[in-house]
Design a protein that fits this description.
Blueprint lengths: L10 E8 L2 E7 L5 E9 L3 E3 L3 E8 L3 H11 L5 E8 L6 E7 L1 E10 L11 E2 L8
Parallel strand pairs: 8-9
Antiparallel strand pairs: 1-2, 1-5, 2-3, 3-8, 4-7, 5-6, 6-7
């Protein structure tokens, strides 16, 4: 089970995803910035909507554990399950298996800005304005 730090983590999306890392960002309105990241190192199984709201994290079901073990050959150290509103008629399910999970707090701006304060940073894809 995952415990999030106190905060308003309503909006969520996939901030970045490559073979070595999946990063989910969250905040009360992620249009311009997010304040929380779940950073999954070495993700081996991912079922996750690209954008979702108000997730409820839970312990994976025995069927989900078997599914992941069958797909990747073992049960990874991190296995996170959730249900969330992804805009459909019913809740969307998410399941992420990885070697490690880091929970990172701090303001991450999704647009170029200078003079960042301590603890603030720019999203990876933000490039300096011309």
């Amino acid at each position: 089970m995952i415990e999030l730090p106190e905060g308003s983590w309503w909006d969520w999306d996939i901030v970045s995803w490559d073979p070595g890392q999946l990063c989910l960002g969250a905040g009360h309105d992620i249009s311009y910035a997010h304040g929380l990241e779940l950073v999954f190192s070495d993700p081996v199984f991912v079922t996750c909507p690209a954008f979702f709201q108000d997730p409820v994290f839970r312990v994976p079901t025995p069927g989900e554990v078997r599914l992941v073990a069958r797909q990747v050959g073992e049960t990874p150290p991190v296995l996170i399950a959730f249900e969330a509103d992804a805009g459909g008629a019913s809740l969307a399910s998410g399941l992420v298996a990885a070697r490690q999970l880091d929970i990172v707090q701090g303001t991450v701006f999704r647009y170029w800005r200078e003079n960042l304060a301590v603890g603030e940073r720019l999203a990876r894809w933000v490039k300096p304005s011309a």
